[in-house]
Design a protein that fits this description.
Elements lengths: L15 H12 L11 H8 L30 E2 L7 E2 L18 H25 L10 E5 L12 H17 L6 E6 L3 H9 L15 E3 L3 H8 L16 E7 L5 E7 L3 H4 L12 H10 L1 E2 L5 E2 H10 L3 H13 L2
The protein binds zinc ion.
Zinc ion binds next to loops.
């Protein structure tokens, strides 16, 4: 992603922020595979009922907001301000609002990364629907590295991803299948810290209090009172960000993890409800935590370790990229 110090050749009016926005628009046209819809198509489909217009990114735009709402499928449009700013369809993600013209734009980059991660998941799940193979959900687990959530500027997408996953889950169930086995795994944070504290015993030390294979499903009152320290009547924690529910788990080998299962029904949507129905296919998710845990890393999980190994730039490719960069005219 372009940062503050780069503009496009041949675009005299270009600014780093405009380059950044144009890049998001271009990158989301990527396909994971020729058979898949593009990430942008996925975004369009799941947000087609979104209300509201897209703000013009020009700071002193006299209109503030484009008069015409950009609706899905339209691509880019031109604002009627004197600058005639191009409004990209993907500006709706609002990542550029955290782009700094004069400083690091970590928040903007993080926003784009999480949008791509989350849209990729939905894109893959939808692929199985489009190819009439929802039966795959029966014995395939989908594992998200991180929580089932979106934070910051694009957090609103949660309200579109949650119903889409719930829809696919229900559709699979209607075909007589058990629905989606999806789990997010948190490797740090307040919930994991809380589990480790619970498992601490005076004199004996860490990991001594809870028996192995203990799963704890905190309801919203418990979360407010003991984990995030909010008044009980505060707005439910995670309401505007999470599309899953958390379970604290100490596995068969005594390792700690926080896993999330998606919200797919009324039980899941009610943060006070900790019935089994609120956590689809939880038993199988916990089995996976037992079977695939690894001692390579503290509280490690084999699928994530392998995914990271694949995602890292391999030595040879990395060297090639550097050679190309430095031999460029
Ligand atoms: Zn404008």
């Amino acid at each position: 992603m372009p940062g503050r110090n780069v503009v496009r050749r041949g675009e005299p009016e270009d600014s780093p922020k405009r380059f950044f926005r144009a890049t998001i628009s271009k990158e989301l046209e990527a396909r994971l595979d020729p058979e898949h819809e593009t990430l942008l198509e996925t975004l369009r489909v799941i947000t087609k009922d979104r209300a509201g217009s897209i703000d013009c990114p020009v700071d002193d735009c006299p209109l503030g907001v484009t008069e015409k709402k950009i609706s899905p499928g339209q691509g880019a449009s031109i604002c009627i301000c004197p600058q005639a700013e191009v409004i990209f369809e993907t500006d709706v993600l609002r990542a550029h609002e955290r782009f700094e013209e004069n400083g690091p734009s970590e928040q903007a980059f993080t926003a784009v990364r999480q949008v791509i991660e989350q849209l990729t998941l939905v894109n893959i799940l939808r692929y199985f629907e489009r190819t009439d193979s929802l039966g795959v959900f029966r014995d395939t687990a989908f594992i998200m590295d991180g929580p089932l959530a979106l934070f910051g500027m694009p957090a609103w997408l949660k309200y579109h991803i949650e119903p889409e996953i719930a829809r696919l889950h229900k559709k699979a169930q209607e075909q007589g299948d058990p629905g989606i086995l999806l789990m997010g795994i948190e490797k740090s944070g307040q919930f994991l810290d809380h589990l480790k504290e619970l498992d601490w015993m005076e004199k004996k030390g860490p990991g001594q209090r809870l028996p192995n294979c203990t799963a704890l499903a905190p309801d919203i009152d418990y979360i407010h009172k003991h984990i995030v320290l909010r008044p009980l009547d505060a707005k439910p924690y995670g309401e505007a960000t999470y599309y899953g529910r958390k379970v604290l788990y100490k596995n068969r080998a005594g390792q700690h993890s926080v896993i999330m299962t998606p919200i797919v029904n009324d039980s899941g949507r009610d943060p006070h409800c900790v019935d089994e129905a609120a956590f689809p296919r939880l038993g199988e998710a916990l089995d996976l935590m037992d079977e695939l845990s690894t001692h390579l890393y503290q509280d490690g999980f084999a699928p994530l370790v392998r995914a990271h190994a694949h995602a890292a730039i391999p030595l040879r490719t990395g060297a090639r990229i550097l050679t190309e960069l430095f031999s460029e005219e």
